[in-house]
Amino acid sequence: MRRLVVESAVLLALVIASAFTLSALESQLSLASGAVATMAMLAAATSVAAGFAAEMVARLSEQSSLRRIAAAMMLYGMVVVPTTASGLAATTLDTIVVIAIRHTATLLTITLLLLAVVPFDRPHPWPIRPFRNPATGLRGLLVAAVCSLASGGLAAAFPEAAYLVVRSPILFSCTALLWLNVALTCLVIGVLRRNRMLVWLSFGQLAIVLAHAPRFWSGDSLFYAPPLYSPLLAPGMRVLGTTLVLLAVLQVAYRTYQRFHLDQERLAKAEAEAVEARQRLSTQAHELRNALAGLDGAAQVLAMDDPEGKVDRAALRAALSAELNRMRAMLSPQSEHTRNDTTRLRSLLKQLVLIRRSNGTAIDLTVDGDPVVAMPQDAVAQVITNILANCERHAPGAHVWVETYRISDTMVRVRIHDDGPGIPPGQEQEVIRRGVKGSGSVGEGIGLAVCQELVTRHGGRLQIAPADPERPGFTVLIDLPLRSRAQQSSTPGV
């Protein structure tokens, strides 16, 4: 509040200093009527600009006070200023009509500004259909303009009575005091509410009141004074007042823009988080379906009688337990495949192949040595499970071969091949993209994309081998980094 009080003192000093400066310069300068008319046009244009800016901000921010300010400033710029600077003769009927219109428009401007400080909204909609929508500044301008023209029509119909009314000093004094009180009310409420717009609006009104001050203290010359009665003070203060109002509205517009920009950033962040969460949930659901498809067959095999002992139940139970633990880790909020940095491929591949065999898939496994890769076991299991599940889903009944061999001193390759229908030539890169799936596929097209992301994240590479006419089917090559010496020394016993 202290800052707002200091700002109010600076604005008050600016308005008073401007009034005294213009008054002093007025006696020393002789301005042409064209220059004064130009200043009047500038004040009118600034007032209309402030009104349109307030209307636009009101439509964006849903602030009813800005709609009334918009109507008031557009009315002032379109009606009050032009009728004040009109060059009609003093005793003609046209002058009486114009003055009546000006007085009515001025009172309506003051009323709209007062309603902007003390908000008022109808509790019930208007009975007329076009007026049932939320009020706008343009509607207020239309109503005020119609009322002003109606007063001009009454003045034309009853010129003698209108002459007595518009010539009455009481009307001028009451108008001046009313506008001054509205300005002070805006100032007090603005300071109490810490509303910078109301504070600037109050000093804009004060400058406008000072612009019309010569008419309020000149007595009988109010009616008979020349139209451009104050060559410099009146248009100069009007320009200052409307400029302060425009700056007040622009401050609100800037804050509204900042709020909208912040809301857009928050919305974009929320949308990104929602997309990420949706992708994460979709990936988890996909992985769980693949894992459950294998576990279903293993559970059925364990439930069956095996009097001849053809099934290695201990190995199958161990593989089943490992898969259940992997699924439990997958559902954990902190599951990021970082619990174990290395994986023994031989033991893991044996477990995964055993589970798929129990599901009815014919799989041959060949492992060259006992390679240890620098990739967490959960991540490797997720990749291999995805590929094997794809073989079962897209090539049912096909034979699958899983081979592991070194391709360099630092890389080991896992080659998974089936003799199913494969994919069309040239689609090797396309099928890896997220969301891409075959015409008859019932999946979501995310399995291979997830596998590639996991392998790439840990320094490996996943690719689809081109189709071999002599050996039809689908072949996936997974290159994984071998465990380094530093990892070997930090993980003894692996």
Automatic annotation (TrEMBL):
GO molecular function list: ATP binding; protein histidine kinase activity
GO annotation (BP), single: phosphorelay signal transduction system
Q: Which keywords accompany this UniProt record?
A: ATP-binding, Coiled coil, Kinase, Membrane, Nucleotide-binding, Phosphoprotein, Transferase, Transmembrane, Transmembrane helix, Two-component regulatory system
Q: What class of enzyme is it?
A: transferase
Q: What is this protein called?
A: histidine kinase
What does the record list as coiled-coil region(s)?
A: 260-287
Task: Please list every transmembrane segment annotated in the UniProt record, as residue ranges.
Answer: 35-57, 69-90, 96-118, 138-158, 170-191, 198-217, 237-257
The species is Thermobifida fusca TM51
PROSITE patterns for this protein: HIS_KIN (PS50109)
